[in-house]
Amino acid sequence: MYDEKLSWILDNEDKSIPQNERYRQNIEFVHSLGLKCDCVGWSSLNLKSSRSNEILADIDKFCKEKGWKARGWYERYYTESTSDWYEIVPSYIKEITNCFDNTVYDGVLGEEVELPSIKAYHELTVSPKYGYRSILVPERFRDICLRHNVTDVDFVWVKDKGKYKAEQYFAMYCNRLIPNILVSKYRKFDCTDKQNAREKLEEFGGYLPLIAEIFYNIQRIDLQDCYLKSEMPNCNFAYTLIKRPYIFDSKTRYEYHFNYLIRKEFAEILLEENAISKSSLRPAHIVSEVLGGYEIAETIEMNRPISDCIKQSISEYEKHKITPRPIRAISEKDALRILRSAKKERKEDFKKRISKTLIPSLAETKYAPLVPYYSIANGGFLSDEYELLSYDDACIKNAKFQDELQAEELLEQKPDGVVIAMCTDGDRVILCADGSVIRFSHEEPSAVDEWKSLAQFIADGVAE
Question: Alpha-carbon distance 6 to 30, whole Å?
Answer without folding.
Answer: 14
